[in-house]
Amino acid sequence: MNGRSEGLNLLDFLAGGISRRDPVIEAVLSDENGRGATADEADGLARFIDCYTRTDDVRNHRGYGLEMIVKLFAGLRRRISESDGVLLRRFLALTERRGDSIWGNALNMKRVFETYFTDIACYVAENTNRSDSDVLTDGDFERDGSWTLAGGAVFSRDARFSGGRGVSFGGAGGESCSQSADRLVPGGIYALHFFLYGKCGVVVENGGRYWNANEQRFSGDTVLEWVDDEVVNVFESPGAWDNVHCFVALPEDTRGLTVKFAGMEGEPAFVDYARLYPKPPNSSFTLVLRHGGYAFGENTLRLAADGEDPMEGINYEDESYFERAFVTGPFGVSASRTFGAVLDTVRPLGIQTFVEFVGRETEERED
Length: 367
Prior knowledge:
Blueprint: H1 3-12, H2 23-28, H3 37-54, H4 63-74, H5 84-95, H6 106-116, E1 120-126, E2 148-150, E3 154-156, E4 166-169, E5 176-180, E6 188-206, E7 209-212, E8 225-227, E9 233-250, E10 258-263, E11 269-278, E12 284-291, E13 301-303, H7 321-324, E14 325-327, H8 332-346, E15 352-358
Parallel strand pairs: 12-15
Antiparallel strand pairs: 1-12, 2-5, 3-4, 4-11, 5-10, 6-7, 6-9, 6-10, 6-11, 7-8, 13-14
């Protein structure tokens, strides 16, 4: 349908005695060429309906038509000054999931967040739980006295995954960083996970016996068992930070459970953000989102410290774990709501999900 035919149709509805050449009629309704305020709007509407109903690939939609589609199917709204390309990317991240055939598993969740948001790294730590159930003290390696260093291992700013520092192994061999739990640890199954850049070993000791978590494929006589001789469980993530984990089974309540990160000869490594949680009976995972900042080069995603209320008027003891995670810096409040909305959209129903926002300190700390 073209503008001329629509304009002529409009003129055909004129009452008798009204001149088609009247300047007001031509301006408001239509002239003989099908141009006029009403004719132009009708023509635009006809073309929009034609495009909207006949274009079956959302990638070929633009402007208002694209906005209508993403609002209808994903509840998204165009941000201020947001281009069609960015709006389309966010929509496809939620609805196509980068072509993943299985939605809601670890890889899919990682891809959704890294596609939906720019300049963000998303990690999935499986079988985790609330922060107050962590067996380890200061798994971020931020406070002196919580961990014992040996053999030349150091706390280093270069080794930080989040916060101000992590553990650095230079590859000389004999380096270690260890901690013994000084409280009663209930028996049960635990998930040890930490962020690693490089290759290192982990020794878990309990009452003179050692946990063998190597090659957790249920092969061999002593795999996933406590043994008498020391076992170094080897983990590696060459070339980039990644979350690594293993399960630890405590047959009974114990005191003095020791976790030691060990450097390996010829293998430099960074370790940070260690957690030892009871494995919950239900399937769960934690999304760890690290962001470089929305503006001014400032890191904006961080975790609230225990007992602190980062925003006035909110009692964080009464809120959920995700609501206790917060975002600071420019656009912080709106950013946290956005992350929460995406999580609610893509998480599998029936699976509990936690989110941790982490940021690196941008200034040198004064010790």
